[in-house]
Specification:
With 455 residues, the chain is mostly helical. The protein has 22 helices and no strands. The chain is flat. The relative contact order is 0.05.
C-alpha cells in the first residue's frame, strides 16, 4: 500500500473530522456552489483516502474547496495549482463554518432561494475576501472555476418574469422573518446576493408594472440590508450606501413609504454620533415623503424616533410631546393593513420608546412600568429588541438605586445578545456598564462582566 493518498486523510484528521463529516461538508459545498445534491457518503471518502477509487472532477473540485487547497496536493490527481498559504491569522475551520451556515440558511429560504444561486457563491466569496481569506483561495480560483467579479460576465441572461418577481417578494418576506433571530452576518449573505440578483434583472431590462415591482423589491431589501449593516454589524458606511439605494429604488417604484423608511433609518446614523440636528433633518424629510402616502403607523414610528433623539438631546418636554403624537398617530383610523416591512414597530415597541423617554425625564416608575410591559409583550422571536428593553430596564433600576437587580437585567440582556449579535443592543449595554464603573469590584458587576466577556 502506498502513501500517495494520505494527504486527504491527514488534512481530515488535522481538522478533527470524521469521514462522515467530510461527506457532509462536500455535500454542503455542492449545494452552495452548484445548487446540486450529491450522493457522497463516508464509504466513498474512505475509498478516496485508501486510493481504491478516484473521485470525479466534480468531487475533486469540491474537496479542493472544502480543504482550501488543490486536488494535486490532496493526492487525488488533476493539475497542480500554486495555492497561496500566507501567514494570515485565520481559523482553518472558519471557511466551512461560514459555508455550513449559509447552506443551512438557504435551506430555510425554500425553493424560491434557487433564484439567488447564480449570485450566492459570489457574495460568499466576497465576504471571505473581506475577511482576508482570499489569500488562501487565490491559488484555488483557477481550479475551482471561480474568477474575480470584475472579470466575470453576468451570470444571468434571461429577463425577469412575473414568477421571478413573486420569488423575490417571497424571499424578502423570509428575510424579514429571519431578521429577528438569525445571526446578522449570516443573513447578510443572501440579502446582498438578492440585491445583486435584482440588479442583474434591472440591467437586462424590464418595463411597466414588472419594472416597478423590481424597484419596489430592491427598495425594501436595501432598507433591510441597511438595518443589518448599521443596527446589527455597526457598519455605518455600508448602511448609508444601502439606504441611498433604497431611497433611489423607492423613487423609481413610486413607493413613498419605502422612501420615508430609508430616510428615517438613515436618521439613526448621525444620532449615534450625537448629531441630533442632522438626525431630525432626516426625519423631517422622511415625514415629507410619508405625507404623500399617509399611514398612521409610519407617522407614529417617525414620531417615536423623534422622541428618542430629543430625549438624548436633553429636550425632555419635546420628547414626551413626540410620544403623545406617536400614540395619537398609531390610534389613527385608516392604517394600511399590510406593511410587512414595518414589523419592527407596533404598540409594544412604542411602549419601549415611551419608557426610554420617561427615563430620560426622570420618571423612573412610569418608565420601568412601560419598559417591563413592552418586554413581556414582545414575541419570543424578538430577541434583539428584548435585549434593548432589558438594557433600558437595567438603566432605570440603577437610577433607582437597585444595583443587584440592574446588573441581573443587564446580564439577561447580554445572554440574549450572545444568541444573536446586535450592535444597537450592545451599545446600550456598554452605556450601562460605564454607569456601574464605581461598583466595578462588587459581585453583581463582576458577574455582569463575565457575561459581557462571553459576547
Amino acid at each position: 500500500m502506498t502513501n500517495a493518498h494520505l494527504p486527504l486523510k491527514a488534512l481530515r484528521e488535522q481538522r478533527g473530522w470524521t469521514q462522515h463529516e467530510v461527506a457532509e461538508q462536500v455535500g454542503r459545498m455542492a449545494w452552495l456552489r452548484r445548487h446540486e445534491r450529491v450522493g457522497v457518503n463516508a464509504d466513498m471518502v474512505a475509498k478516496w483516502e485508501r486510493g481504491e477509487k478516484k473521485p470525479s472532477p466534480l468531487y475533486r473540485e469540491l474537496l479542493s474547496l472544502v480543504f482550501e487547497t488543490d486536488s494535486h496536493s490532496l493526492g487525488l490527481g488533476g493539475p497542480a495549482h500554486a495555492a497561496a498559504h500566507g501567514s494570515e491569522d485565520l481559523d482553518g475551520n472558519s471557511l466551512i463554518e461560514m459555508l455550513g451556515g449559509a447552506a443551512s440558511l438557504l435551506d430555510q429560504l425554500g425553493t424560491a432561494g434557487a433564484i439567488l444561486q447564480p449570485r450566492m457563491f459570489d457574495v460568499w466569496k466576497d465576504e471571505l475576501m473581506q475577511r482576508r481569506a482570499l489569500l488562501k483561495l487565490m491559488g484555488l480560483a483557477t481550479a475551482a472555476g471561480v474568477v474575480p467579479i470584475a472579470d466575470r460576465e453576468l451570470s444571468r441572461s434571461a429577463k425577469a418574469t412575473p414568477g421571478d418577481a413573486d420569488s423575490l417578494d417571497h424571499l424578502t418576506d423570509r428575510y424579514q422573518a429571519l431578521y429577528h433571530s438569525t445571526a446578522p452576518a449570516l443573513l447578510m449573505t443572501p440579502v446582498v446576493a438578492h440585491l445583486e440578483t435584482v440588479g442583474d434583472f434591472l440591467r437586462l431590462g424590464a418595463v411597466g408594472p414588472l419594472l416597478r415591482r423590481l424597484f419596489a423589491n430592491q427598495a425594501r431589501v436595501a432598507n433591510l440590508a441597511g438595518r443589518l449593516a448599521f443596527c446589527d454589524l455597526n457598519d455605518s458606511l455600508a448602511a448609508r450606501g444601502y439606504y441611498n439605494l433604497a431611497l433611489e429604488s423607492a423613487r423609481e417604484a413610486g413607493d413613498h413609504l419605502q422612501g420615508a423608511a430609508a430616510l428615517a433609518h438613515m436618521s439613526f446614523i448621525p444620532a449615534a454620533d450625537r448629531e441630533y440636528s442632522a438626525a431630525l433633518d432626516y426625519l423631517k424629510a422622511a415625514g415629507q415623503q410619508a405625507a404623500k402616502h399617509p399611514d398612521g403607523r409610519v407617522e407614529s414610528w417617525l414620531a417615536a424616533a423623534e422622541a428618542e433623539f430629543r430625549a438624548n438631546a436633553g429636550a425632555h418636554a419635546a420628547s414626551l410631546k413626540a410620544i403623545d403624537l406617536a400614540r395619537d398617530r398609531l390610534a389613527k383610523p385608516g392604517l394600511i393593513a399590510d406593511l410587512p416591512w414595518l414589523d419592527f414597530y407596533d404598540s409594544t415597541r412604542l411602549s419601549g420608546f415611551a419608557g426610554y423617554a420617561l427615563a430620560r425625564d426622570g420618571q423612573l416608575e412610569a418608565s420601568k412600568a412601560s419598559l417591563m410591559a413592552a418586554a413581556e409583550q414582545l414575541p419570543r422571536t424578538a430577541v434583539k429588541q428584548k435585549a434593548v428593553f432589558l438594557a433600558d430596564i437595567a438603566t432605570v433600576e440603577l437610577a433607582g438605586g437597585e444595583l443587584d437587580r440592574a446588573c441581573a437585567s443587564a446580564s439577561e440582556a447580554a445572554e440574549s445578545l450572545r444568541l444573536v449579535a446586535y450592535a444597537h443592543g450592545a451599545w446600550r449595554l456598554r452605556e450601562f456598564r460605564r454607569s456601574v464603573e464605581p461598583w466595578a469590584d462588587s459581585a453583581p458587576v463582576r458577574t455582569l462582566d463575565e457575561q459581557l466577556a462571553m459576547l
